[in-house]
Amino acid sequence: MVFAADPYVAPPALRNGHRMTLYAWARRRRFPRLPEPEARLFDVAPQTRVLAKCHWQDRRAEHPTFLLLHGLEGSADAHYMRGLADKGWAAGFNVVRLNQRNCGGTDHLAEGVYHSGLTADPMAVIRELIDHDRLRSIVVAGYSLGGNLSVRMAGEYGDAVPAEVKGFAAVSPTIDLMSCIEALERRSNWIYQWNFMRDLKGRIRRKVRLYPESYSVAGLRRLRTVRQFDDAYTAPMSGYRDAADYYHRASALRVIANARVPTLILSAEDDPFVPAEQFRHPDVAGNPHVKVVLTRHGGHCGFIDASRNGDDGYWAERTVVKWGQQADKTRGGGS
């Protein structure tokens, strides 16, 4: 699929990866035109459910659908999830904002934990949307960890991708987890590490209250990095030997060569902890189904530009919607 993204130009004051990332994270946003969502539970595994917030167009089966995936310790209510939903809805898409396991106040719906390689959950959601809702055009879009999931799904599906799945998109995706963890551990990135660990530790404490036989807080206070957390909790609870094994096997980079449907990657050269080098890997650059747009500025999941003509200035959200519209038409969407 031939696709041309509109040029991205960061405001002069935000031409710094940290400044852009933190400003985008802290900036308050409102979406008055986005209707109230319908809450929906999806059974994705035995005794495991995930909660989605769904925005349905009238006669939903006649419209294309975005399935949105958030990042580490995010939720369906993250600003970028609502921002992309707002733009997708205005463009005529249904939008399904999916909470990953335990996220968005849903720790009680699943004993296990979510992780960067857990594609089975969104794949189960896609199957239900196709079989139950009769949706005929679905585009998956994810941010950061959710971006890794989106790209990984494209690779895992390979030639067997359902005809109803028209494309994938990823913003600031962590497709090489080890390189991203190494970047996160730089001294200049302490604020992001601290924020992730605060939220991850809080999740384990909630899990202990809900599932005391499966979780323990022994040693939790000593953990200081996401790598240490993944060694202690994520990896052993998800079938990986250790954090290194998890990062290797769960990275979308391992399977991206198999992607056979249009897959968009948006990332910035100045992203504080998603190094751009991973997007120049031969398995990425050599796959004609993968379109990579690397901008000079944009930070991590930022990409704010000048607001104009009623637009709120979030370039990545506009670009993903444009990609979704083109993917829907190129692969014979039913809309």
Protein described:
With 335 residues, the protein is an alpha/beta fold. It has a single domain (12-177, 252-330), classed as 3-Layer(aba) Sandwich (Rossmann fold), CATH 3.40.50.1820. It contains ten helices and eight strands. The chain has helices at residues 17-26, 79-90, 120-131, 145-157, 177-184, 190-210, 226-237, 243-250, 282-285, 315-330; strands spanning 38-45, 48-55, 65-69, 94-98, 138-143, 165-171, 263-268, 290-295. Strands 1-2-4-3-5-6-7-8 form an eight-stranded mixed sheet, sandwiched between helices. The two termini are 18 Å apart. The model has no long low-confidence stretch (mean pLDDT 96).
According to CATH, the fold-level topology is Rossmann fold
Known CATH architecture: 3-Layer(aba) Sandwich
CATH class category: Alpha Beta
Unreliable residue stretches: none
How many strands in all? 8
| Major β-sheet annotation | 8 strands, mixed
Strand residue content: 15-25%
Q: What is the percent of helical residues?
A: 25-40%
N-to-C order of helices and strands: HEEEHEHEHEHHHHEHEH
